[in-house]
Amino acid sequence: xxxxxxxxPDACPGxxxxxxxxxxxxxxxxxxxxxxSAAQLGVLAACAEDLGDGSVHLTSRANVxxxxxxxxxGELAGRLAAAGLLPAPAHERVRNYLAxxxxxxxxxxxxxxxxxxxxxxxxxxxxxxxGLPGRFLFAFDDGRGDMAAxxxxxxxxxxxxxxxxxxxxxxxxxxxxxxxxxxxxxxxxLRFLDIRGTAWRMRExxxxxxxxxxxxGKALPAGPFSxxxxxxxxxxxxxxxxxxxxxxxxxxxxxxxxxxTPWRSVVxxxxxxxxxxxxLALSTDRGVSACIxxxxxxxxxxxxxxxxxxxxxxxxxxxxxxxxxxxxxRGTADVLAADGGYLIDGAFVPxxxxxxxxxxxxxxxxx
Length: 367
Description:
alpha+beta; Sulfite Reductase Hemoprotein, domain 1; 3 domains; 5-stranded antiparallel β-sheet
């Protein structure tokens, strides 16, 4: 595979490099491993209210986005830095680290959370790694296969409690002890910088076949789950991955820390059934996701979120306003806006027929 020639630079948004949309400017805040403290949730809520559209938007890389910002993000950056959410401004767009969201809580071969902290420290200590593309993705998989399925550029996947396999663009490589996992990922990231040319992802480099064909990652279902220590946790799945400032504060009151997942959901590690109603009310997921659509994005052909609400089906589907298919999870039906309706995996369905189409699809799946 030849390295693609690109005339434009990588424009992956961050806090300092924002993206202009029809509803204002967009800023993305990296959350290593998806972890965010209750105090930081409070800061995110205040920023959303004071500076943005009143909500935070979860991303497919376990980060959060603000929308509706002004062009000057100086105040946003200052608030985030004070909360510990911008520890290395020069590296803020490259701190893309996934980790198995239930690691250390339920299942898995070992707890990979300390490895995320170690990798973040190591990456931010290397000035040259600030030159990684904003799309470059690191991951730690605790052995259950959930993060390897998210197509990271570099992944350390546990095979037992002491070691794992290094995956490059999904292709399995050498066995690496857990004590050497971070060094191996940093070494490979530096190597990528040396040979990348204009490539944004490792799979674009010559010699990579596209990697192992991993099945799509299985999103965590909404509701309580059993922890290995006998307690309970909770997975909250908000509709379209959007949480209002008030909902963020509800999460902050429930636990000292929560974990944002790459499936636009939030894991509350400690779940007290006494606070259940408020938390359970945050989950309104109906099996669908959607890009922002009209009026937030001028490139969109439709108000996809309004149309997605026409179905109450649990059939996994992603509504896209244009061919970019922003935020589309793997393994979901492709619902692309077209004149008067949608192309669903290539077949045209009029807007007024969406509910019936998904109801019939769900019924077939239950047989």
